[in-house]
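Retro notes, structure queue

What went well: the backlog is down to a handful. What didn't: a couple of records were mislabeled last round, so from now on we paste the full input next to the output in the thread. Example, using DUF5683 domain-containing protein from Rhodohalobacter barkolensis:
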Amino acid sequence: MIRFTAVLIFLLLPLSVHSQQVERTGNPGEQVITSTQELNKFDLVDPAFTTRFNSADDYSISGSFQSKPGLAFFSSAIVPGSAQAFNRNWIRAGFFAAVEATAIVLAIDFHNRGSRVENSYERNADQNWSVVQYAQWLVEYHDVHNINNPYIEDLRNEVSGLDPAFDTDIDWSAVDINVLRNSERNTRYFTTDDLSANRFSHTLPAYGSQQYYELIAKYYQYQAGWRDYHDFHDQLGHTGESYNQRYLFDRNGAYASPLFWQFADDAERFNDLYRTSRSFKMVLLVNHVASAFDALFTVQLKQNRVEATPSIVPGRQISMTVRF
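Corresponding output:
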């Protein structure tokens, strides 16, 4: 009898902090001791397990991301996958982080590759396209086609007797860009098909500008400035009576020299690299947006599920029934 009493006291002692009530069951002589705080049922909950789930420190950060959709949204919008990681959605967090890292690396890589090709293009263009040769050709073009242009004599005076140096410092010091542009504005196209054409569509941009390097290898108007232009037309047989053929434009580019096409290909190459880099930058943007909305909807969905589910205290529980 003494042993039974001691065992019973040992079992009931840890529960003395809870207010208890006696509830009768359908079986006379049987009573169930229950805790008023735990669903009218007498539970022994592992204290360590309870502390783990209710610690304020444990929920100070991750709890905010699990309960605040707005915070989760902005976190993943700034650092894709961050809110997913706080919510322990490791697969999604890893996916968004991997996309972010890959897109950053590739965007930088393709941009740098494009920049290297562009720099090489510009250095080579400076050595193979001359504003003096282009201006001289333009003066001769007017003479061949008898074009009336009030500015052409000024341009003639600037470049007459000069040899193209294919050195930008020398050639650009000899030509007044404003005189050249005025001459271009009053010049019309003469083509191999003898069809009427409009005036020149462009004026030469300032040396060194992005547009300058783009136009000299894009529009046939500037084909005569390339180093191999006259040699190429010699090979085409544009000599003697056919010499003036080099002062015509072919609409399909047949009169543009190999250097023109080589640099046109190089320009397309670095532009493709830049476009690819921009595409990966768009992937970055999409990844930020997708990660942000994924975090938002995930937290909202969890909240909706919690609101629809009875609250249960997690832990290992023991129910005790005492019979009299």
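Agreed that this is the format going forward. Reviewer comment attached to the example: Residues 143 and 152 are 10 Å apart (CA to CA).
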